[in-house]
Amino acid sequence: MLHLLYILAFTILAFIAVANLIRNLVMFSFDTDRTYSRSSMGQGNSAYMSSRKQFIPHPELLDSSGNLIKEPLLVMRSVNVEDARQQLDALYEASPGQKSEKEEG
């Protein structure tokens, strides 16, 4: 009987937690969509809201002159399996731990 009481209590708590989660998500989405009038905003908030409306790109998306980069940022070249194994073996052999293991052995 006590087990059923625990199951019932935790089921009720789980429903309350899920209901609060859904309510908070809905309220958060409404809060981000809300537009504020100029009279309700203070001086500090208006500067924040006006800067938030402007698009400020990340510095890595700009070239040396400050213009947006319009080319792909990630270019991958295909490497066959044998080349990848050789590069990994070279890295492994060049690692500092590898030399100490050879001296011990």
UniProtKB/TrEMBL annotation:
This protein's species is Hassallia byssoidea VB512170
Quote the Pfam families the UniProt record gives.
Answer: DUF2973
Keywords per UniProt: Membrane, Transmembrane, Transmembrane helix
In terms of InterPro entries, this protein maps to: Phage_Syn9_Gp224
Give the transmembrane region(s).
Answer: 6-26
This protein is called DUF2973 domain-containing protein
Top-level taxon of origin = Bacteria
